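Researcher: Please predict.
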Amino acid sequence: MVSSFSPSSSSIRRKSKKTRICLDSLPEDLLVEISSCTGASSLSAVRNLRVVSKSFRRICDERYVFYRLSLKEIDYPPWHQNSEYFFERCRNSGNPEALYRKGFMNYFRDNLKHEGLKYLAEAAEKGNREANYVYGLILICLGDKTKQKGLKILSSVIKPLMSTTMEELVELRYKIKKIRDSVLWPNNPVMERLKTVYVREKCECDCKTRMLLVRNHGWHRYGDDTDMNISSACEFCLLHHEVELFLR
């Protein structure tokens, strides 16, 4: 007869006490890092983290956590006062995405060009890809001394995305189109002004670049052929193509 061993409930409790980790006992800088990493990946996840303990609720209100928060789950512009207060906290914490959205709204919807460019420039400096794209486009359209700076900024965004496939660039276009369509109405005066002042110089490019632009004439490209070798394409035409897509 084979005997079976069943551990007592007291021994199980002792074992569980030995392996249980109290999150509140962790160093505060580690808790801040956990909270900020969670917020950078998902806003809903950090909301859940706030209810874990009082310590996490307090830490989730830290400036660094708000700085890293991902806002992709929230539509813009905010329609409720609480949402506006939340975005204001994010901006005051230097959140790049919040700065980008505020800059876009100020420049295009509110016709506050100076303030809008200031926010867009700050978001771009902090590495926000959408902000660099839009900021570069605006500088190109304005021309004169800002044009070369805009081309350089836009190139820093486009070239890495187009080094292998078009998928990442199409995704970036979609994100920008989403906020553009949500805040701009037809014949928006600021957009119409950019169309008026924008000047594209003539450029002799090869056949490959022209064919690429034909296949990618819209914000979203269709078809299975997603690969492209940018080394053989005319960068000047590629950058101006992005400007023309945005101004449509």
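Model: The chain is about 65% helix and 0% strand.
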